[in-house]
Design brief:
The chain contains no helices and eight strands. The chain has about 100 residues and is mainly beta. It has one domain. A hairpin with a 3-residue loop joins strand 6 and strand 7.
């Protein structure tokens, strides 16, 4: 699913609509795109020699998934603030 517009510098959360029974969701992966198109995972990034939590899935509801980024971490910068950019994708594994 496309994330669509998300100014990560200004807003810590983003709501994504899905059409799957939440009890059948088995896995979620998120790829975040910078304003220049660099792809990175939402959850963990390696900063030098340590892993840093940069964002997460805050909540999975009946028809929505809330993504969040952590304040003062990787995605809380002007490199992720262009509202014209598709901010990336959420890939979902679910049971039929």
């Amino acid at each position: 699913m496309r994330i669509g517009s998300w100014n990560m510098d200004a807003s810590a959360n983003c709501l994504i609509t899905h059409g799957v029974n939440k009890l059948k969701i088995r896995g979620l992966w998120t790829t975040i795109l910078s304003d220049t198109g660099k792809a990175e995972p939402l959850l963990f990034l390696i900063n030098g020699t340590s892993a840093v939590i940069s964002g997460a899935y805050q909540e999975i509801e009946t028809s929505t998934i809330t993504l969040m980024r952590i304040d003062s971490q990787r995605f809380d910068t002007t490199v992720y603030n262009d509202p014209a950019v598709n901010r990336g994708w959420v890939t979902m594994l679910y049971e039929l």
